Amino acid sequence: MGLLSFPDLVCYVVFIAFLFTRFWMVSILYAIWWYLDRHRPRQGGRQSAFIRHWTIWKYSKDYFPITLVKTAELDPSRNYLAAFHPHGVLATGAFINLCTESTGISSVFPGIRSHLMMMYFCFWVPFYRDYIMSLGLVSSEKESVTHILSRKGGGNLLSIVVGGVKESLNARPGAYKLVLRNRKGFIRLALMHGAALVPIFSFGENDIYDQVENSPGSWLRWFQDRLHKSIRGSIPLFYGRGVFQYSFGLMPYRRPITTVVGKPIEVQKTPHPSQEEVDRLHQRYVKELENLFEAHKLKYNVPRDQHLEFC
After folding, report:
1. Of 61, 175, 177, 255, whose CB neighbour count within 10 A is largest?
2. Residue 70 lies in a domain
3. What is the pLDDT of residue 6?
4. Under DSSP, is residue 34 helix (H, G, I), strand (E, B) or coil?
């Protein structure tokens, strides 16, 4: 997760605009707070149960609707590293399920505190940084992972949308192409901290938006790939429905999203894992993710002959 959005730009504009009004002191005081609090996004953030329970999240969940499905218990005395697939255009299922209480994650997994990783540069946005931290979002840096997975007493679920922005470029209805083949950093982190790996697959995540044709080899994909290499971000050109009509707009389609949380994969703590150990666990993880997908796909309207594709 990590594209800068319109709200981010608004926050920058407001912060700068205040400097040229009688409210200039607001920006000055906030800048001081921002500096003193600069390490917080990589130190577990600052969750707010009040904001995570806002009624707007329930309306958002009901719009599609979005459902959270548990297939196994998570022991609240342990810490977990979850990998979320697929990214989709805006990682909607990841946000609603893991950053709000609209689908009842704290009730589904009692004693578990959920965090979701987001690109570090999103925490450079004034005001917005405090808002996203209140929802359980933390910086996608190794220091952030270490801080959460090393907490005594357990009860932490740290989730990573593994495919990232690159995977979002493949998101369109009926697509099941995951960027995972060479994504092994999360595997190494799980080994280093001895955190059980939790596969999560969100059925319907790719179905809520269409994208402008950007198949490999097209000029648009060439531009998007170059942008990704330059700034580690890109711009999916997506569209959906309108507010009062269904033909075109930026509203997502009302199609169900069902996020299935798989059984934890036990991981032996290995402070300095070898590449062979990383590769072995990665292969096991991919197999467990495939099993999770195959076991549930027919329930959620995925054709029997459809299988996951990895790149």
Report:
1. 61
2. yes
3. 67
4. helix
In this structure, is residue 1 part of a structural domain? Answer: no
Report how far apart the first and last C-alpha atoms of the chain are (Å, whole number): 19
Pairing outcome for strands 238-239 and 210-211: antiparallel
Per DSSP, the three-state class of 91 is coil
Closest CA to 105 of 122, 129, 86, 80: 80
Cα 84 to Cα 159: distance, rounded to the nearest angstrom: 7
The structure tokens 């990214």 sit at 87
Task: State pTM to two decimals.
Answer: 0.93
* Cα–Cα distance measured from residue 278 to residue 75, given in angstroms and rounded to the nearest whole number: 24
Residue 2 has pLDDT above 70, yes or no: no
Domain assignment present for 74 = yes
Domain that holds residue 225: 6-310
Q: Which residues contact 25 (CB under 8 A, 6 or more apart)?
A: none
φ and ψ of 89, to 5 deg: -70, -45
Q: Which residues share a beta bridge with 198? A: 82
The letter for the amino acid at 96 is: I
Per-residue pLDDT, averaged over 29-38, amounts to 95
Domains contained in the chain, number:
1
Structure tokens at 67: 């459902």
SS3 47: coil
Q: For residue 99, what are its two tokens?
A: 């950053």
Res 228: pLDDT? 80
Q: How far apart are CA 197 and CA 74, in angstroms?
A: 11
Q: Are strands 66-70 and 113-118 parallel, antiparallel or unpaired?
A: unpaired
> 257 CB contacts (<8 Å, ≥6 apart)?
64, 65, 66, 67, 92, 93, 96, 202, 203, 204, 205, 207, 208
Contacting residues for 11 by C-beta, under 8 A, at least 6 apart: 125, 126, 127, 128
